[in-house]
């Protein structure tokens, strides 16, 4: 499972190390390092965990312990080019958030949590995105999609697919 | 923003202002001048005293006196002391921190710098949830501007006081909003809340004295510095003279209104506005002309108020008087009469089962068991006995009965116990109708595989 | 003295003692059930099994005020006036709730679980749980995966006390174990390719309060209620860790650490833990033999007792290697036997195996490089017999030199090193003994040296004898015989006892008392020794 290949680029390592002066311990760089790798690779493969652990003087299990707790980082394979979090918490659910999630997944031909076959989109249910004033809402990349309807969700899907083709 | 009598929004004054998030706009509104004056004229202890005398209570949920929290720091500590800014706003229904960070980040920074000065912190970490990329950008821009303007860095404005502020990104875990969970997460570990004592003020981030304050709390600090203690105490609900333990509910508060209202949004009002006032005067009433069935007073973990309880003042003491956990984040979520209370509670239980950090047995197993029961009830296999079991879980899990380390379990428990206590008839009717042959069953029944809990 | 009130009973604790409620209540005879707390690990207070009621008694008025909610006993320190209630309805109810919660997803596969019989989940459920199951029933599942070469994990039996994870982070310092995921989905795991593989790994099995972590060496070998426990000391190195040998019908099944704050705290290393298999190795020497003109013949022990003495008398000058595997009592009797035959007998410390350097772990545990348990005890005995020259006790090399130089005509070599496959003595070394008139070799296994012996005598293993060892920290510990040696084997002490013409059964306690009377260095061995042993140095200082 561990191929011992080098996953972290020199640039990633440099960016991680550049943050070191901010924290009194190396372990505090765990989340920043995981984010840097995840932003680039859209997942944090096991090899990367080993490399991060080495960089931070930790055991791989310590980094993995943290990584798995947050249930945010993909590990086995990269998430889609666009990662969409559809809120399912109470304010969005009251205004149709779960229907939007189901509709989007159905149109994309995937189940919640999965990635489309063309790798363009991963749809994940999310707990409160903190945009209840625009419920139901969705965070796709850095973009907040507000006041969603099934129609708007479909339009979003079309734009993602269009971007990919 | 709508006015409430003579009250003018202050925390939200930048909302709607063009370029309101820029440092120039902030200064033109009077920002940073209080900081400069305070750095030049006041000692840290004076600032602590100022905040203490203002009666400011933390806006993150627990409502602890901010100034008092600061006094728990050891005197004459050689340092470093850390200030952690809790921007992991994750309580369902809550988004006031997001508005503040996106629209007026300098107000946050000024409050942070003042608080760091008061607590002698040399480094502040803003722990920002992953879900707020816009806040990240606006805060980072503001931090860069503040460094350039000399409000951050070494020897700020010649005062001898130095401060660095760093943004630290979370990774989607509700428990990081608990202050010691946040600290563990900042340190690079799983966000399992720590046992107390020691409290963070004695041994916090990196085993050093640490203060954790919420974004809105820091915005209030900036406003107290600008407008004075007397102004702050003129807003809100004064302490109950008959209750020596009531510190009062002073100052403005950001109320997040969402769910089934016509105009969801973040509204600033003096502490103590009633839920009905908020819904009718700010939110344009319950949507579609319907009636409210239930209202969450301050984020889902605070429980439920019924329609009859909507005249409850939303100050720190109010929601507790109708059996809710407290004011929480003052995130008011309206649930209209068409919603099944079973669906509501299912949503709540799913959230807490997903977000329980898994450290304490009663919370880890209680949140998961309650979700499992709700799944089964919704699948038409509920039993009346399940309601007793749910109520028992609600009564036994949490920090208040002492069965958990942190308050997450109390937040998980309250919607359960409020829903069962206040809407038991509806649960019973649902169970009887959906499971006409088995609702009286009392023997254990097979669990369903939990399919909807992703 | 600070007074603590436990369920109404007042107990005094030491002025400087820092106890939590669990420890204080135990002094009063009240056992507070707990899973996650362990005295050797950090406090996490997460299992919530030890919840109790606590408060304080006002020293002036005597009024008791209680904390309104339940508190974890593990996390709550006691001081003068602390009031602990462990038997109230609220406490009992809380324990029942925790037990119920822990059993919601537990497979309850006790009939096939190794831990059954010594499982805290079982014991506490019996004592504090409720008979009725109220939770939705889950289908049976008990996934198993290896977490390392010696330890296996039954994933679904785990109750997430995290003792094992904390152990690898705080004591072994190797951090192989982790918690993965969160909430009810969390599991104990290792990182792929980084198994639980350190010299203290086996301790996580002892720490596991339930049947989640299993020792592959012990797995499915024996139900624990058949096991008898004997207090032993590890012979693997000079640390002398306190052990419990668990055995049934003269077969050892496992070794476990025995708590000893002066030596090993709560831990042992895996070298020691699995260092008993040689006892049951089929290649062990099990009968005495004599090499005469007509070749090698097995003989009776009675003939050994008389024959040895005659042979050695005839040979003349004797050199004796007193093995650091022998007990203090055996070493003393061997020296006495030797000097009764040859008053000038040359006495030396036997072969002392060493391996690398001392290996220390962050939690303070150290594995010693000296792979024998009793060098210090044997040296003290040799000192009693005036074996030192210029203040130095001669060792194996000095004995070799002497034999090679022809200064001795007979040699008696005791060994007993637990190495069945690689002998401690190679051909070249053994050749040095070829010119002797008489060579006695007393050992566990055959060797090039034993092959040259006139008298080849089987030795006993560590669990097959009783006596006293002195560890590298000058701590003397007595231990009991756990099992009988294989048929045909006399423990060393029995042979020496008989050769000294003593009557009856070998009495190591009597020998120890005699030694204590006649040696200042070993005076502390007098009387009954506590289970954790005595420090010889302290007693010398105290002696007038």
What does this structure look like?
The complex is a heterotrimer of chains A (165), B (454) and C (544). Chain A is an alpha+beta fold and 165 residues long. Chain A is 45% helix and 11% strand. In chain A, strand 3 (138-140) and strand 4 form a beta hairpin. The longest helix of chain B has 27 residues, at 408-434. The mean pLDDT of chain B is 95. Chain C is built from 15 helices and 26 strands. Chain C has a seven-stranded mixed sheet, sandwiched between helices. In chain C, strands 1, 2, 3, 4, 5 and 6 form a six-stranded mixed sheet that branches. A three-stranded antiparallel sheet of chain C has the order 7-8-11. The model of chain C has no long low-confidence stretch (mean pLDDT 95). Chains in contact: A-B, A-C, B-C. At the A-B interface, helix 2, helix 4, helix 5 and strand 2 of A face helix 7, strand 3, strand 7, strand 11 and helix 13 of B.
Concise structural overview:
The complex is a heterotrimer of chains A (165), B (454) and C (544). Chain A has 165 residues and is α+β, with helices and mostly antiparallel strands. Chain A has helices spanning 10-19, 30-41, 46-55, 60-70, 90-94, 97-108, 150-164; strands at 82-87, 121-126, 138-140, 143-145.
Shape of chain B: globular
Would you tell me the overall average pLDDT of chain B?
95
Strand order within the widest sheet of chain B? 8-7-11-9-10
Helix content percent band of chain C: 10-25%
**Mind telling me the C-alpha Rg of chain B?**
22 Å
Number of extended strands of chain C = 26
Question: Quick one: biggest sheet of chain B?
Answer: 5 strands, mixed
Give me the oligomer status: heterotrimer
Low-confidence stretches of chain B: none
What is the overall silhouette of chain C? elongated
Structural class of chain B: alpha/beta
Strand content of chain B: 5-15%
Q: Of all protein chain pairs, which has the greatest interface, and how many residues does each chain bring to it?
A: A-B, 47 and 60 residues
């Amino acid at each position: 499972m561990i191929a011992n290949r080098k996953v972290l680029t020199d640039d990633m390592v440099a960016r991680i190390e550049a943050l070191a002066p901010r924290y009194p311990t190396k372990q505090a760089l765990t989340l920043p390092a995981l984010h840097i790798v995840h932003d680039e690779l859209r997942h944090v493969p096991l090899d990367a965990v080993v490399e991060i652990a080495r960089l931070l003087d930790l055991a791989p299990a310590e980094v993995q312990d943290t990584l798995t707790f947050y249930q945010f980082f993909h590990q086995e394979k990269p998430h889609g080019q666009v990662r969409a979090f559809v809120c399912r918490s109470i304010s969005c659910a009251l205004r149709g958030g779960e229907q939007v999630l189901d509709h989007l997944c159905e149109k994309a031909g995937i189940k919640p949590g999965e990635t489309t076959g063309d790798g363009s989109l991963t749809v994940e249910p999310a707990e409160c995105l903190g945009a209840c004033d625009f419920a139901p809402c969705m965070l796709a990349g850095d973009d907040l999609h507000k006041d969603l309807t099934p129609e708007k969700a479909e339009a979003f899907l079309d734009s993602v697919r269009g971007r990919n083709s | 923003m709508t006015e409430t009598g003579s009250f003018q929004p202050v925390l939200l004054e930048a909302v709607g202002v063009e370029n309101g998030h820029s440092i120039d706009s902030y200064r033109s509104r009077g920002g940073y001048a209080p900081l400069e004056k305070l750095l030049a004229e006041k000692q840290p202890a004076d600032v602590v005293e100022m905040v203490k005398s203002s009666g400011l209570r933390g806006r993150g949920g627990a409502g602890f006196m901010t100034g008092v929290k600061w006094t728990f720091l050891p005197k004459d500590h050689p340092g470093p002391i850390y200030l952690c800014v809790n921007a992991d706003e994750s309580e369902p229904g809550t988004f006031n921190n997001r508005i503040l960070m996106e629209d007026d980040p300098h107000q946050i920074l000024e409050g942070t710098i003042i608080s760091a000065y008061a607590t002698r912190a040399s480094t502040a970490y803003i722990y920002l949830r992953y879900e707020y990329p816009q806040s990240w950008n606006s805060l980072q821009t503001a931090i860069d501007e503040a460094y350039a303007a000399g409000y951050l860095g070494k020897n700020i404005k010649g005062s001898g006081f130095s401060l660095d502020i760093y943004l630290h990104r979370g990774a989607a875990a509700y428990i990081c909003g608990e202050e010691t969970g946040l600290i563990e997460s900042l340190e690079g570990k799983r966000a399992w809340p720590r046992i107390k004592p020691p409290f963070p003020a004695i041994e916090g981030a990196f085993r050093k004295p640490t203060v954790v304050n919420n974004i809105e709390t820091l915005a209030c600090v900036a406003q107290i510095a600008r407008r004075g203690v007397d102004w702050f105490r003129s807003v809100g609900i004064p302490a109950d003279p008959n209750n020596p333990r009531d510190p009062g509910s002073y100052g403005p508060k950001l109320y997040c209104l969402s769910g089934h209202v016509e105009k969801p949004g973040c509204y600033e009002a003096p502490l103590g506005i009633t839920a009905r006032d908020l819904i009718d005067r700010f939110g344009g009433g319950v949507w579609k002309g319907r009636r409210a069935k239930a209202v969450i007073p301050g984020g889902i973990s605070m429980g439920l108020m019924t329609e009859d309880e909507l005249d409850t003042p939303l100050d720190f003491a109010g929601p507790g008087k109708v059996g809710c956990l407290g004011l929480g984040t003052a995130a008011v979520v309206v649930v209209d009469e068409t919603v099944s209370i079973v669906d509501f509670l299912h949503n709540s239980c799913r959230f807490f089962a997903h977000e329980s950090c898994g450290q304490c047995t009663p919370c880890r197993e209680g949140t998961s068991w309650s979700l499992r029961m709700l799944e089964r009830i919704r699948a038409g296999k509920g039993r009346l006995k399940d309601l007793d079991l749910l109520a028992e879980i609600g009564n036994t899990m949490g920090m208040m009965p002492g069965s958990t380390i942190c308050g997450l379990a109390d937040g998980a428990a309250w919607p359960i116990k409020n829903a069962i206590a206040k809407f038991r008839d509806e649960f019973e009717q649902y169970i009887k109708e959906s499971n006409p042959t088995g609702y009286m069953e009392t023997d254990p029944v097979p669990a369903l595989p939990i399919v909807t809990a992703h | 003295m600070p007074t603590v009130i436990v369920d109404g009973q007042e107990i005094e604790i030491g002025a400087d003692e820092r106890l939590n409620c669990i420890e204080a209540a135990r002094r009063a005879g009240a056992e507070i059930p707990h899973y996650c707390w362990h005295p050797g690990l950090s406090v996490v207070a997460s299992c919530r099994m030890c919840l109790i009621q606590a408060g304080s008694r006002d020293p002036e008025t005597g009024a008791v005020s209680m904390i309104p909610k339940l508190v974890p006993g593990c996390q709550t320190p006691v001081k003068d006036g602390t009031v602990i209630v462990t038997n109230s309805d609220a406490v009992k109810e809380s324990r029942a709730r925790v037990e119920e919660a822990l059993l919601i997803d537990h497979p309850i596969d006790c009939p096939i679980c190794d831990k059954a019989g010594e499982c805290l989940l079982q014991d506490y459920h019996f004592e504090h749980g409720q008979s009725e199951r109220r939770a939705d029933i889950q289908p049976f599942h008990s996934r198993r995966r290896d977490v390392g070469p010696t330890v296996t994990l039954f994933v679904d039996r785990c109750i997430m006390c995290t003792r094992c994870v904390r152990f690898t982070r705080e004591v072994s310092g190797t951090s192989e174990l982790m918690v993965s995921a969160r909430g009810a989905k969390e599991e104990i795991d290792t990182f792929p390719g980084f198994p639980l593989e350190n010299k203290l790994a086996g301790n996580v099995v002892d720490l596991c309060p339930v049947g989640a972590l299993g020792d592959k060496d012990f797995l499915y070998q024996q139900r624990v209620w058949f096991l008898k426990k004997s207090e032993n000391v590890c012979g693997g190195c000079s640390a002398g860790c306190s052990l419990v040998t668990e055995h049934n019908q003269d077969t050892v099944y496992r070794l476990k650490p025995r708590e000893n704050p002066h030596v090993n705290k709560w831990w042992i290393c895996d070298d020691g833990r699995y260092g008993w298999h040689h006892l049951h190795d089929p290649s062990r020497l099990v009968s005495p033999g004599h090499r005469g003109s007509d070749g090698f013949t097995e003989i009776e022990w009675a003939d050994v007792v008389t024959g040895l003495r005659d042979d050695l008398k005839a040979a003349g000058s004797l050199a004796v290697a007193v093995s650091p595997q022998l007990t203090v009592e055996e070493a003393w009797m061997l020296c006495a036997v030797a000097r009764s035959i040859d008053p000038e007998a040359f006495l030396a410390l036997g072969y002392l195996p060493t391996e690398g350097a001392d290996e220390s772990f962050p939690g303070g545990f150290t594995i010693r490089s000296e792979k024998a348990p009793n060098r210090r005890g044997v040296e003290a005995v040799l000192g009693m017999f005036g074996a030192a020259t210029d203040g130095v006790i001669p060792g194996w090399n000095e004995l070799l030199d002497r034999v090679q130089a022809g200064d001795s005509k007979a040699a008696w070599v005791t060994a007993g090193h637990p190495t069945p496959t690689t002998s401690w003595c190679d051909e070249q070394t053994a050749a040095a003994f070829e010119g002797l008139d008489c060579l006695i070799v007393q050992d566990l296994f055959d060797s090039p040296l034993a092959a040259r012996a006139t008298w080849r005598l089987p030795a006993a293993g560590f669990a097959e004898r009783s006596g006293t060892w002195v560890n590298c920290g000058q701590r003397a510990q007595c231990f009991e015989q756990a099992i009988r040696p294989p048929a045909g084997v006399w423990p060393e002490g029995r042979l020496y006892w008989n050769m000294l013409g003593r009557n009856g059964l070998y009495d190591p306690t009597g020998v120890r008392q005699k030694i204590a009377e006649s040696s200042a260095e070993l005076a502390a061995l007098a009387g009954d020794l506590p289970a954790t042993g005595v420090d010889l140095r302290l007693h010398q200082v105290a002696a007038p």
